[in-house]
């Protein structure tokens, strides 16, 4: 869907149905009142653990830090081998090799941010080189950022071409496209950016880098879930959604699963189509999991801080 | 290395385990007396009414059916309270009582929510998040007015009317009580209120709340009963004003009885609200609004958006989305926190819904319902959407008062407005468009007391509510609502 007729891309994106802000917030708040307890809660917690992209994206990241996190990703609860591993670890490109080595032979994937994360203010060649380097180092999932400046300036063609080019540079690796919704100003733009990314080849659309406030919110995730739902109805291709940033508690995570269940549908309730980008969330999930199994909370000291 | 090759959940989708609200918070007495002059007193009439839980048809309690002598006692008490205490009390003092009642409603919110669900059949999610908080809000709002009536734009010193006879319906038992009693008391009137025969219980708890708030005896009197009691209440010579919410049929009967007596009357009656969806509507939110418009409270809502008018160019895209959304509604135990659709309030109402739905099918409209399990006991009706409906069909003209939506299409804004207004009713309407000028153009031409824009079924005590034509007259809520209780 490149901009073959000048202005056609803009006309397409602006022709999408609008999003009523009050209505979408109300729907998200309504779904947040769903009560998920007992057996349903136990299953939801395990599913949420399997959907976590365990993330460290700091300037101070070291090989030691990444290895420790990788160990936690494979076996989140040292005291309980039944706790499932997370979906992936998410690191900067220069740490992809360390992560790949630490996770070799496990079912945990290596995800790497790329394309000049988090601002994305680098030339396209640099973005592509960044992507290729991460893939070469063993990343099987690439989390790219879109050019928000171009998007807000109305240069949708540029955003589209960049995503398509990065997708090509990914080769076999899966592409998650970060919209950085906290910078997109309105819900209509979130919908437009979602469709733009999906048409350009995104395997996943992701809310945020985690470096901008607000990060993931339920209404924004709801709009993105509607986009992947409608995109599949239109094209037959099922893309995923990844809210990232600010999801810290089991309650939050379960609310996101309810959104997935009721907005996109049960087909999206798997790590192949829904991920939670988080770091501190995992320990809360583990604590709640132990609480359900044993009837009491272990203190935070019983869960590793990696 | 495997990456994105996980399958879906092995054992199916995310099933919510049953999450019932505890019933133990409510202590229902086996039998209730009338609330007259600040006390629960035995009825002179020996007739009793059994109120049942519509979700399982089990009896909940027995209440008195007040006879003429009982109604007479209630009016005597109300008159005495009006003349002796309430009309002489400064507004600020009346306000204090109302604030107190509002706070007690909040304190007993959970109990009231559970009881309302049990007696009415509506889901706990609605009683907890809508009925009870809004009832408290109505008392808070009117408490604030009690000492500011001179600034309501109704003259420098507006006077109360006296004793007010109030008859309320079963669809929002506590909330309708609040809509009636809060403004009446704030303006200095005293009341005799008759709750609906199938849903008297929260009104009786409200009577306890009046006691708890030390409300002077006789200011609020509650007489339970059925049609005969209602007739005795509205026909009582001591009633200076009558306020009724219910069916247009009964409203007409009351209007006839009151005509020529000089007594004031406000009526809030039926409706056949049009929900107009233009092709530039915010689509997903419009789908939500259509669902809220007709399935909120099982469609037992006088202002329900029971006629969906969708622009023909959008219909093919909208209807599958609407059906997919309705598939997700959860029908069942009203006390389960995850229930979206509860029980139909009574066997009589269920029969009425069935009759009209059958008429719809017989007249050539096409019904659709999601595949949802209907509980074995109780009164239930699945969410139903009729397509291919013409203006001439009964389901497009008569109020069904159930979870049944009639879908009609239109081509131009003019046609939408014409069809929307082509009804003997005029209570509510909805308009969905992202274009402000079209919104205002449409809203200005709709003959309905309430027009919701890009939303539906939103209520606020500050906003006046009421109808045109056969939907009644007078307004409730807001500054306009005070006029009904001041002379």
UniProtKB/TrEMBL annotation, chain A:
Broad class of enzyme this protein falls into: lyase
GO cellular component term, pick one: cytoplasm
Catalytic function, reaction form: 2-deoxy-D-ribose 5-phosphate = D-glyceraldehyde 3-phosphate + acetaldehyde
Keywords carried by this UniProt record: Lyase, Schiff base
Keyword Transferase part of the UniProt annotation: no
EC number: 4.1.2.4
GO terms assigned for molecular function: deoxyribose-phosphate aldolase activity
Superkingdom of origin: Bacteria
GO biological process: carbohydrate catabolic process; deoxyribonucleotide catabolic process
Associated pathway: Carbohydrate degradation; 2-deoxy-D-ribose 1-phosphate degradation; D-glyceraldehyde 3-phosphate and acetaldehyde from 2-deoxy-alpha-D-ribose 1-phosphate: step 2/2
UniProt family annotation: Belongs to the DeoC/FbaB aldolase family. DeoC type 2 subfamily.
Protein name: Deoxyribose-phosphate aldolase
UniProtKB/TrEMBL annotation, chain B:
UniProt entry keywords in alphabetical sequence: Oxidoreductase
EC number: 1.2.1.3
One Gene Ontology MF term: aldehyde dehydrogenase (NAD+) activity
EC main group: oxidoreductase
InterPro entries named in the record: Ald_DH/histidinol_DH, Ald_DH_C, Ald_DH_N, Aldehyde_DH_dom
Location of the Aldehyde dehydrogenase domain: 40-486
Keyword Phosphoprotein found: no
A Pfam short name: Aldedh
SUPFAM superfamilies recorded: ALDH-like
Family: Belongs to the aldehyde dehydrogenase family.
Protein name: Aldehyde dehydrogenase (NAD+)
